[in-house]
Amino acid sequence: MSKTAIITGGSRGIGEAMSLKLGEMGYNVVINYRSESSKVLSDNIAEKIQKDYGVETLVVKADVSKYEDCENLVKAAVDKFGENIDVLINNAGITNNCNWIDIKREQYEAVINTNLMSFLHMTHLVLPHMVNHSSKDNQCCIVNTSSVGGLTGVINQADYCASKSGIIGLTRALALEFAGKGVRVNAIAPGMIMTDMLRGVNQDELNALAATIPQGFIGDVSDIAGAMEYILTAPYVTGQIISPNGGFVLQ
Ligand code: NAP
Predict the structure, then answer these.
(1) Could you tell me the pLDDT band of residue 200, with boundaries at 50, 70 and 90?
(2) Are 179 and 130 in contact (CB under 8 A)?
(3) For residue 244, what are the domain limits?
(4) In total, how many domains does the chain have?
(5) How far apart are CA 76 and CA 61, in angstroms?
(6) How far away, in angstroms, is 136 Cα from ligand 1 center?
(7) Catalytic: 108?
(8) Which residue spans within 77-139 are E strands per DSSP?
(9) Domain holding 177: CATH number?
(10) Which one, 62, 119, 133, 243, has the greatest CB density within 10 A?
(11) 246: Cβ below 6 Å to ligand 1?
């Protein structure tokens, strides 16, 4: 029987690569996005997944920083694919780049609500649809996208770092709580990855960023989709933070 995966922020960047990988792995994929401009992007990813991998897809617009939108997202997935959800990829994220004196309350609340509260909402809503059928031999899996910002401090990213460290705490606690129930919970903490998040950074700045990475280059979205694939296929791995980062946090 086909298995169902939900991914938040599946329309672009890392989320797009993960959505495609989920399809390649044979999951029916529920792709979430938020911005109107990403509808076409999401529809195109869904079409490609169906065509290339022969699985079903569903595209759902929802602002996952809001609990009600998360409820609608999970309901849409259940209406289409049934009560059992096998995989949740919490990936939606935004960032500010602002010092802690000038930052506005609305700015840091948006980061915390999008990057952390959405992960709480989605795990809270999806876990009942996992524990209803999960077991040692039929494991369900949650993968949370954290960041190296959750492992180290980053200047002008206090809100982002707070959200990404919070995800690590959530991951470890849920991994422990659900370890005996056939649900594994892990996180990926990417280093610098070439996506729209680095849009606006000019070539000189990109070169300077790359020079801060021991391996000397910025990562690709496939590095993160590959880490997700490893986690989904590693039955004895739970509560772990896998960090493809070119050696960034070794310094
Ligand atoms: P991106 O290209 O900017 O894509 C962000 C994704 O999140 C988009 O799909 C966006 O949807 C979605 N999103 C944002 N707010 C949302 C909301 N409220 N509700 C639903 N979806 C929402 O970013 P990315 O670089 O791929 O980042 C993906 C994840 O990796 C994030 O959690 C980010 O913090 C993390 N990360 C990225 C890097 C990096 O260097 N790129 C490094 C470490 C961690 P729309 O398309 O509709 O806007």
Answers:
(1) confident
(2) no
(3) 4-250
(4) 1
(5) 10
(6) 32
(7) no
(8) 87-90
(9) 3.40.50.720
(10) 119
(11) no
